[in-house]
Amino acid sequence: MAIIEMKVPVIGESVTEVTLSKWLVADGAYVNLDDPICEFESDKATLEFPAEASGKLIHVAAAGADLQIGMLVAKIDTAAAKESPAPKVAAPAAPAAEPPAVETAAPTPASGSNYATGHPSPAAAKILKENAIAPAEVAGTGREGRITKEDAAKAVEAKQTTPATPPPAKPATEAPKPAPVASFSRTSEHKKMSRMRRTIAKRLVSAKNETAMLTTFNEVDMTEVMALRKKYNEKFEAKYGIKLGFMSLFAKACAKVLMQMPDVNASIDGEEIIYHNYVDISVAISTPNGLVVPPIHNVESLGFAEIEHKIKELSGKARTGALTLEEMSGGTFTITNGGIFGSLMSTPILNEPQSAILGMHAIKERPVAIEGRIEIRPMMYLALSYDHRVIDGSTSVTFLVKVKELLEDPTAMLLDI
Prior knowledge:
This protein is of the alpha+beta class. It has three domains: 1-83, CATH 2.40.50.100; 114-160, E3-binding domain (Dihydrolipoamide Transferase); 197-415, Chloramphenicol acetyltransferase-like domain (Chloramphenicol Acetyltransferase, 2-Layer Sandwich), CATH 3.30.559.10. The chain is built from nine helices and 19 strands. It has helices at residues 122-130, 149-161, 195-210, 223-240, 246-260, 304-320, 325-328, 393-408, 410-415; strands at residues 3-7, 17-23, 30-31, 36-41, 46-50, 55-59, 66-68, 72-77, 213-221, 267-269, 272-274, 281-283, 285-287, 290-292, 295-296, 333-337, 356-360, 363-370, 373-387. The strands form five sheets. Strands 9, 12, 15, 16, 17, 18 and 19 form a seven-stranded mixed beta sheet that branches. Strands 1-8-6-3 form a four-stranded antiparallel beta sheet, with no helix packed on it. Helix 1 packs parallel to helix 2 (149-161) and helix 2 crosses helix 6. The relative contact order is 0.11.
């Protein structure tokens, strides 16, 4: 019996351990070469692990196990590959009165059948199902036309850009209801933290303990920004195929000021301070598995439409788990928008090794004094958390004031004056 051992591969320079989040193929099932057999969850992303040969799969590691790089995951009996894959056990004949819908069902990865053209991988099938996309609507780029995880992610992104007819509203009685809880219930549930959640927890604690973090606040009058979007959004979308959002305006304002104030764009490496002559802004994106902060590179050189498209691309990949390790790495400054969840004010935590992070918040109409009179204006609180080891208090305040001035006069930002 020829046995192929499958071990955890080298995933990235900084990745030393992964979690086997789930098996995609059952123990003892037949697999083809390059078929994904399981998913690994690293500190930054979820990755499929393909079969290195065709044959019978033998599980070695259990789902949920933490594995070091190089540890044994599974074995493949290649002797089984020399024989025809075991046929599926025929299901009991259905009564003639029932529709033969089951005859058209696609084979599962564990069935032993070869993938047909257009058949999605398990991870891709999950993404398509969650977003109500039929596999027939997706062009596969994998072997023999198979739909890969990346194909599914692109299909989701394409669907989000295409206006869809809203489904008819369901009666209130059909709304999902939370599971009932018995009165005076005192039950509890223990659930292992995902690797991403554990990594987030460690990084947050490290940022609190290893940096001299401080936060300064200011508020910005969003009147001019909102007027700019209202006046040009329709033309902007018609030309570039995407709406002009707040994030690109904030990113561009921050990039402009960061190039003027390199301390806020710097990072500490041991006893050295690294100054960057470019601005890579990490954008905080909330996903079902936790918060991720993929960077947009060279924001100082990008136009507003390019920034918006990049944000949309990264957000789509983040929510479908398709971000690569390269797309998750780097960044010289971070922007997080708690306002989309209704946050009025907060103190964001640093994204190490970066030295500063800007927190955006909800826009609220408030009475403000304008040239001796009271007016109602759309106001937003801004928070800049920074590492006091690198950035002085006066520098942080000046940075936030400059960003505020650009946002309150976006024409000056557009004219680069």
